[in-house]
């Protein structure tokens, strides 16, 4: 089980009221929500391995150099700080004021429990997940609220996505059939489909006049992005003149978009042990964290779920 950790704690933050606080009044809704989410995932799916994948770089410079607008609207005005996470020449991501202080707590708690965390400089959590999933020799469940990771779904290899419906509740199981039903393309076509369509939430402009439906139709008809571009260059293709023009004029974007959209599969990972911790790695530190931050039943439920995997 590979956790897209930032995606999940953002969802926990917005899914659990800020009235959930530590003894000193500091909000811990993201911390407790994430712990409850992981507890439920472990209880429901009994993973044999568990890795919390981190954004060591939420906006990698190599992606920004290819598409400068990549996630640019999420960059905060203030300089990068210790809690924000750097990316794109030190840019800091906009994070709610009451969430930023919870991120170091989440990391400390996961470490004290013994959940393996992996983040690699210059890469997003998506890239870590893609590399781990690609190298896996057992079925993989990727837990994320990010549709970009749908491109990794592979029924033959047992790679699927658990996509939260709302907050920290139930998850939809995304397999190849689910992707085809939702988007009209195969999982192995999803990255090209996403590049063609674009994604305002990631600062990807896409091609003028092409949305979900038309992107799916084009990718299905011409198999991949290269086929779509070849059709645009052919005056005798079935494409209308306006569509050919729009695709051709987006050539500079389409030259680089696939590399930006596709999840990296060659991240240099550190040595790690994905084993599910059945007892705390550092009980003393965990007790101190539980007391300091009032983690209560959320931590207890996670520890109980982990112990049952032994």
Automatic annotation (TrEMBL):
<dbReference type="InterPro" id="IPR020045">
    <property type="entry name" value="DNA_polI_H3TH"/>
</dbReference>
<feature type="domain" description="5'-3' exonuclease">
    <location>
        <begin position="1"/>
        <end position="278"/>
    </location>
</feature>
<keyword id="KW-0540">Nuclease</keyword>
<comment type="function">
    <text>5'-3' exonuclease acting preferentially on double-stranded DNA.</text>
</comment>
<dbReference type="InterPro" id="IPR008918">
    <property type="entry name" value="HhH2"/>
</dbReference>
<dbReference type="InterPro" id="IPR038969">
    <property type="entry name" value="FEN"/>
</dbReference>
<dbReference type="GO" id="GO:0004527">
    <property type="term" value="F:exonuclease activity"/>
</dbReference>
<dbReference type="InterPro" id="IPR002421">
    <property type="entry name" value="5-3_exonuclease"/>
</dbReference>
<dbReference type="InterPro" id="IPR036279">
    <property type="entry name" value="5-3_exonuclease_C_sf"/>
</dbReference>
<keyword id="KW-0378">Hydrolase</keyword>
<dbReference type="InterPro" id="IPR020046">
    <property type="entry name" value="5-3_exonucl_a-hlix_arch_N"/>
</dbReference>
<protein>
    <recommendedName>
        <fullName>5'-3' exonuclease</fullName>
    </recommendedName>
</protein>
<dbReference type="Pfam" id="PF01367">
    <property type="entry name" value="5_3_exonuc"/>
</dbReference>
<feature type="region of interest" description="Disordered">
    <location>
        <begin position="77"/>
        <end position="97"/>
    </location>
</feature>
<keyword id="KW-0269">Exonuclease</keyword>
<dbReference type="Pfam" id="PF02739">
    <property type="entry name" value="5_3_exonuc_N"/>
</dbReference>
<dbReference type="InterPro" id="IPR029060">
    <property type="entry name" value="PIN-like_dom_sf"/>
</dbReference>
<keyword id="KW-0238">DNA-binding</keyword>
């Amino acid at each position: 089980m590979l956790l897209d950790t930032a995606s999940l704690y953002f969802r926990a933050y917005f899914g659990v009221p800020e009235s959930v606080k530590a003894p000193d009044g500091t909000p811990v809704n993201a911390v407790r929500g994430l712990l409850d989410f992981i507890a439920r995932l472990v209880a429901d799916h009994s993973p044999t391995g568990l890795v919390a994948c981190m954004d060591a770089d939420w906006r990698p410079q190599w992606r920004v150099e290819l598409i400068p607008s990549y996630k640019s609207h999420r960059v905060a005005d203030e300089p990068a700080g210790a809690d924000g996470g750097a990316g794109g020449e030190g840019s800091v991501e906009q994070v709610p004021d009451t969430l930023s202080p919870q991120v170091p707590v989440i990391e400390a708690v996961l470490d004290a429990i013994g959940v393996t965390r992996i983040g690699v400089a210059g890469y997003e959590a998506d890239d870590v997940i893609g590399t781990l999933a690609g190298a896996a020799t057992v079925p993989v469940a990727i837990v994320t609220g990010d549709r970009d990771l749908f491109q990794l779904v592979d029924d033959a290899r047992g790679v699927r996505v658990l996509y939260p419906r709302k907050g920290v509740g139930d998850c939809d199981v995304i397999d190849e059939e689910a992707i085809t039903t939702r988007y009209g393309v195969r999982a192995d076509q999803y990255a090209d489909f996403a590049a063609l369509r674009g994604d305002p939430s990631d600062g990807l402009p896409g091609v003028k006049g092409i949305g979900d439906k038309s992107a799916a139709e084009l990718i299905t008809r011409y198999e991949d992005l290269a086929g779509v571009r070849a059709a645009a260059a052919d005056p005798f293709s079935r494409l209308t003149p306006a569509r050919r023009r729009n695709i051709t004029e987006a050539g500079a974007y389409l030259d680089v978009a696939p590399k930006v959209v596709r999840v990296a599969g060659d991240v240099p990972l550190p040595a790690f042990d994905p084993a599910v911790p059945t007892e705390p790695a550092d009980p003393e530190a965990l007790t101190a964290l539980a007391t300091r931050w009032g983690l209560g039943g959320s931590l207890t439920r996670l520890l109980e779920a982990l112990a049952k995997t032994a």
